[in-house]
TrEMBL record:
Interacts directly with activated HRAS; a RASSF5-STK4/MST1 complex probably associates with activated HRAS. Interacts with KRAS. Probably interacts with Ras-like GTPases RRAS, MRAS, RAP1B, RAP2A and RALA. Interacts with RRAS2. Can self-associate. Interacts with RSSF1 isoform A. The RSSF1 isoform A-RSSF5 heterodimer probably mediates the association of RSSF1 with HRAS. Isoform 2 interacts with activated RAP1A and ITGAL/LFA-1. Binds STK4/MST1, inhibiting STK4/MST1 autoactivation. This is Ras association domain-containing protein 5. It comes from Emberiza fucata. The gene is Rassf5. It is found in: Cytoplasm, Cytoskeleton. One of its GO terms (cellular component) is nucleus.
Amino acid sequence: QNVTQTVEEEKPEPPTVQEIKQKIEKYNAKVTNCLLMKLNDDGTYTGFIKVHLKLRRPVTVPAGIRPQSIYDALKEVNLAEMTDKRTSFYLPLDAIKQLHISSTTTVSEVIQGLLKKFMVVDNPQKFALFKEMRKDGQVLFQKLPLTEYPLYLRLLAGPDTDALSFVLKENETGEVEWDAFSIPELQNFLMILDKEEKDKIQQVHKKYERFKQRLQQTLKEARGKPG
């Protein structure tokens, strides 16, 4: 059962550098995949988080864009800005992205970084980062404020993803705000929905056609048997 929590949690006092150091040592002692956290001289620290992408609606990306090369990455070339052509498609629901971030990286920056890595050109405000927790057989989701620091939450929870994981979802505010989408995006959505509708109709037709054939075969066999 999935439950979304909307109540804001009270934030404790910021920890001292010594407390952070102790937490990092305790965290690293539990790590089994070499994804350690590292404390910097200025009191900040770096580490890794994994984000599950659970997007139910299609995203907009540049059409016909070539994959980003190492040269582009080093030069910070934004391929998405090099074409005006756009297309929409669904990201796999089981997609997971690992990010190396700092303790000063906010939720807003994580969302923007994820969209950039997948070359998604949609407005970042259409998306939200949630923390997912499992408790008493329930899966609890809580939307994170844009100013929250995901790496600090990871540090507090430890490396176990069952205790805490991050999920990128649509920024639900009740009804879908269709005004936030451009006309080409809306047209692409209609095309995708039309295709899905036709596929569903075809599946239903095939299902009942098979049922009809089996029923006819059963009746034929029953008529051939003595009363």
